[in-house]
């Protein structure tokens, strides 16, 4: 078993290849995947992989780079889903506008949550964000205007119109999610090589030392929270557009929060490629074990995934993708990197 894990480790050891080469090398060939999808199930799994790449990148900004273990990202995810859905269902506003509004509203919710909780540290912050999710779940269940426990269903008569962003072909959803995954990955890459990313890493490593160096930990964490929440809100809106039904249980259940955390943890916290690898491992394991075993052995799929997670934790405790320096690494040879080298800044 250890030999297999070491073999996988060599495969995912991508430190020597520049990220600017790796990202297109991953995403451009992926455009052809729908042509090999012989079943609806496989294509559906690919769509969820791309969606959760984006959502994993969202959590990676605040959890991987800033080191804030948030268990409340489902709140921003749900805010985005409900905003897109309500604007379209109630007010006939196209989701193209609704997704942007969803991101902005989710960012506002995230900033409020951050302002209330960033004074807390370590597990106290995690508990506070989890409490926010539980509170939002109760509120959404009782809020009749947004459908309460019954939820909201999209008008199926709109399927197929470009205005509605509702497609009869699953392949079109694949390409929409591909754009979302690529866009969020490029955003995190830009964060990785920017001064903001370096400051967030410094706060993660030693907040007191970073503050003594003149970095305002609170405000930089707020920047990260706003950006992370904006992406989560758009992801929630895209999820609503795909499933065409939204209700509190599927948006705010505890496992949803856990998924946002698991994906970057499996792939590698604070890395650009980690959420991509994590989403592939998690979604394929979840979907195929649940489908093959869920009907006869309820819960066995989670047992198998737990075993996979344990193996990763034992043999790759820092995730499948190693952290690479944002400064002074051959994989980040941009002008930002050169200026950072001249200033003597370090990543880790």
Structure explained in plain terms:
Helix 3 packs antiparallel against helix 10 (217-243). Mean pLDDT is 85; it is low at 328-348. The protein starts with a helix and ends in a 5-residue tail after the last helix. The protein has one domain: ABC transporter involved in vitamin B12 uptake, BtuC (Orthogonal Bundle), CATH 1.10.3470. The chain is built from 15 helices and two strands. The longest helix has 27 residues, at 217-243. The chain has helices spanning 2-11, 19-30, 40-65, 73-91, 95-117, 123-142, 170-192, 195-205, 207-212, 217-243, 248-252, 254-267, 274-293, 300-315, 335-343; strands at residues 152-153, 245-246. 43% of the residues are buried. It has 348 residues and is mainly alpha-helical.
């Amino acid at each position: 078993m250890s030999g297999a894990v070491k073999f996988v480790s060599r495969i995912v050891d991508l430190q020597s290849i520049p990220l600017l080469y790796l990202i297109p090398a991953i995403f451009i060939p992926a455009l052809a995947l729908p042509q090999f999808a012989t079943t609806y199930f496989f294509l559906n799994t690919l769509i969820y992989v791309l969606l959760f790449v984006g959502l994993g990148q969202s959590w990676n900004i605040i959890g991987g780079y800033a080191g804030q273990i948030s268990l409340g990202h489902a709140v921003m995810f749900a805010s985005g889903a409900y905003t897109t859905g309500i604007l379209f269902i109630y007010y006939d506003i196209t989701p193209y506008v609704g997704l942007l509004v969803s991101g902005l509203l989710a960012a506002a919710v995230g900033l409020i949550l951050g302002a209330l909780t960033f004074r807390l540290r370590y597990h106290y912050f995690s508990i506070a964000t989890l409490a926010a999710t539980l509170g939002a779940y109760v509120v959404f269940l009782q809020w009749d205007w947004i459908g309460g426990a019954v939820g909201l269903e999209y008008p199926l008569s709109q399927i197929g119109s470009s205005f509605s962003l509702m497609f009869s072909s699953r392949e079109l959803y694949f390409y929409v999610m591909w754009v979302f995954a690529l866009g969020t990955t490029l955003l995190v890459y830009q964060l990785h090589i920017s001064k903001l990313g370096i400051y967030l890493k410094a706060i993660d490593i030693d907040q007191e030392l970073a503050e003594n160096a003149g970095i305002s930990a609170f405000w930089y964490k707020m920047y990260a929270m706003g950006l992370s929440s904006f992406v989560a809100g758009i992801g929630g809106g895209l999820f609503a557009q795909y499933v065409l039904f939204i209700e509190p249980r599927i948006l705010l259940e505890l496992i949803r929060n856990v998924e946002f955390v698991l994906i970057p943890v499996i792939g590698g916290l604070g890395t650009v490629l980690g959420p991509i690898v994590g989403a592939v491992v998690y979604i394929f394991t979840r979907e195929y074990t649940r489908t093959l075993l869920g009907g006869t052995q309820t819960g066995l799929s989670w047992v198998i995934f737990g075993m996979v997670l344990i193996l990763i934790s034992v043999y790759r405790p820092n995730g499948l993708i190693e952290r690479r320096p944002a400064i002074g690494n051959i994989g980040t040879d941009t002008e930002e990197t050169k200026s950072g080298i001249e200033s003597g800044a370090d990543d880790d």
